[in-house]
Amino acid sequence: MPAAAMTTSHRAMLPDADALARKIAAITGDAPHRALAERLLALCGAQLTAARPALDRVEPGDEPAQHAAALRDLAKHG
Amino acid sequence: MDELLDGDIAGAATALARGAVSARELTQACLDRIAARDGALRAFLQVEAESALARADTLDRARRGGDALAPLHGIPIARKDLFDRAGRIASCGAKRKEAHPAEATATCLARLDAAGAVDLGALNMSEHAFHPHGLNALAGPARSPWDPARTAGGSSGGSAAALAARFVFGSMGSDSGGSIRHPAALCGITGLLPTPGRISRHGMMRSSPALDAAGPMARTARDCALLFAAAAGADPSDEATVQISFAPKPAATLRNRTIARPHDAQLASLSPDARVVFEQAANSFAAEGADIVEVDLPAWDVLNALTAIVFASEVAATHRRRLADDPGAYSPEVRERMAAGFVYPAADYLDALRIRARMTRSFVATVFARTDALLLPCSPDVAPRLDEVMPGAAQRRYDAGAYTLATAADPGRFTRALNYLGLPALALPGGFSEAGLPLGIQLAGRPFAEATLFALGEGFQQATGHHRRLPPGLTPAPRAT
Prior knowledge:
The complex is a heterodimer. Chain A is mainly α. Chain A has one domain. Chain A is built from four helices and no strands. In chain A, helix 2 (17-28) packs across helix 3. The model of chain A has no long low-confidence stretch (mean pLDDT 86). By secondary structure, chain B is an alpha/beta fold. Chain B has helices spanning 2-5, 9-18, 23-37, 49-64, 107-114, 157-164, 181-187, 221-231, 272-287, 300-325, 332-338, 346-354, 356-367, 386-389, 416-421, 450-464; strands spanning 44-47, 76-80, 118-123, 143-144, 147-151, 170-175, 190-193, 213-218, 258-262, 291-295, 373-377, 425-432, 438-444. At the A-B interface, helix 2, helix 3 and helix 4 of A face helix 10, helix 12 and helix 13 of B.
């Protein structure tokens, strides 16, 4: 995705392609692959931008475990 | 026997209970079909004939001894090859250098055993359940019985192919973003994504703990309900499970039911065939008396993106050690796609989970306030040809980043967000393309509303009969007169 479409805070949290290629290589044991890193940055940047309206709404009291409780509650009360 | 094998669990169970057929005869007939036809389909990775026949003999002795018959007594089924079966090695669709026989059987399989089912073996699946079109370096992809040049879908493609080919009456599959529903749609069978916590995942390969579900696949909604009733329930070995009652309902009349559907703009990514089938399905519900109301699927693209972030991050975490220690267990394409999970910041992954409850409450309030179910497409098109979607294909129509990109050809566009929301969804045969290939629909519901979905699905199947159509090679020859 075009870098211009990312928010400033979002862009700041993603590594550059060379750093990402080195990170993936360190995890997987593969040789650094800059072209793959560029593709992944584009793919994941697009998803992060699409998710941003929700991610920016997270409040301090929100917890992952609340989801299971929400399902049970919604089953009872619709 | 062919008529019995082409039918459903209810018909087979009745014949078994009457003694018209024995469990051994039924099991042997299924094994004979597999031996005769599976060479072209590759639905099975491992046929376990000896243990299946021994099990059938045990069940026959119990019946002759006057034992009460369990709901699935003598019914041949199989399993996606990512569930533990004691003494067997689950391949998870991959060439792993270290794989050991399981010490215990997965809870959901043990419950199907207790209900009397006969397990015929391990079914083909995508490598590590991580390819929408069934890439499998062990045996090649499972092929569609409707056209063996096409994929049976992924990741539970072997299950869908085996059911469409009438090799078995049911299968236990898994779904983290569409892996039951996508192949079900492409092969013209029925499959359920259950509400999280309904079916234990103990003994099942994990990909994405937040999104993984085990679920039944069968030929009809009624058969899926039978398998679901046997497999569901709390399990001390899986803390995520809950004990919420499930009481199967008879086929629902569709009259006076209210069913939501997306408006036109949200269906723009469907192929012309898929769009026609979806509209015909909506019309079938309406013709049976259901009230169809258009809704704007709230934040659907946002939900798809949140799901992709959670899925990629968790899959990468699940596999990171093996990616380094056992590189041969991953095809290059799967390896590259898994690397996406190393890109997302941990804070965004965690926030995607933290906002999940509020996204679900908002979605349910918007879509289900006055409706019984949500009608959705399943896959965006018919099963693609294998030469269009496998690595090295000369003409790649589909993006290799399908799970990480919301493209028009994204096979999970209408399935994956439901895993994130935690809503049950029943995939059903929705109709056929002009070329005679199956296409699916989904009915999604409120949390734990599986009984409603099964009843509505059975009502739809009684009205349309799509589930009864057989793949061309299986169509019975006309009787000589």
